[in-house]
Amino acid sequence: MTFVLGLTGSIGMGKSTVAAMFADLGVPVFDADAVVHRLQGPDGAAVAAIEAAFPGTTGPGGVDRARLGTAVLGDGAGGAAMRRLEAIVHPAVGRERSAFLAAHADAPLLVLDVPLLFETGGADGMDAVAVVSAPAAVQRGRVLARPGMTSARLEAILGRQLPDADKRARADHVIDTGGSLEATRRQVATLAACLRPREGR
Q1: How many angstroms separate the CA atoms of 194 and 26, rounded?
Q2: If 0-12 CB within 10 Å is exposed, 13-18 middle and 19+ buried, where does residue 64 land?
Q3: Out of 78, 79, 111, 169, which residue is the most buried by the measure of CB atoms under 10 Å away?
């Protein structure tokens, strides 16, 4: 029987790096962010609906993420604009996730990499949840080093996310990325080894 591990963590915590480490171990990983990028990319399935809901936020290359972000984040964390966008994106991502689960039904372990897993209520559908975490100063340094990122934008993003302490408290497993990459890799390998023997349960 397949064991489904939900992988989540706030912005800048190293979740993508951890997901890649699981993939390096041969664990199939569903990357919700990558699916969203594809849905919003050139000829993406969500582009027309997003343009209809947020005029002027798309072009030949698909969704202009900066323009869409301004339109959505400017409305506040729980605003109507965010709810409109989620009503377009979440069902489409859900269909992709269902297809992924069906395609890997024989795998002993699957990882679903979902940034807003707790915030969207998706944790209930997992066998366990692993939260990727690092000290706040490390997180902030990583995020502000990204091109185009500002303190104001970071605060707006964090306003949409459950605080790290709350995520850690709700997690079945915590992967600490505040140390070296090798230390993180050891944690991932140990967790994968612990969960994989559940095959057949």
Answers
A1: 15
A2: middle
A3: 111
Q: What is the pLDDT of residues 136-145, one digit of tens each?
A: 999 999 999 9
Tokens found for residue 126: 């997992």
In 60-199, which ranges are continuous DSSP H helix?
65-73, 80-103, 136-144, 151-160, 164-170, 181-195
pTM of structure: 0.85
Per-residue pLDDT, averaged over 139-155, amounts to 92
Q: pLDDT (tens digit, 9 = 90+) per residue, 29-56?
A: 999 999 999 999 998 999 999 999 999 9
Q: How many helices (H) and strands (E) does the chain have?
A: 9, 7
What total of structural domains would you count in the chain? 2
Q: What does the mean pLDDT of the chain come to?
A: 91
Please tell me the predicted confidence (pLDDT) of residue 81. 86
Q: How many angstroms separate the Cα of 20 from the Cα of each of 12, 112, 184, 188? A: 15, 12, 11, 10
Together in a domain, 45 and 143? no
Do 128 and 190 sit in the same domain of this protein? yes
Dihedral of CA atoms 123, 94, 184, 107 in degrees, nearest 10, equals 100
Residue 90, judged by CB atoms within 10 A of its CB (0-12, 13-18, 19+), counts as middle
| Domain of residue 72, residue span | 32-103
Distance of alpha carbon 52 from alpha carbon 196, whole angstroms: 44
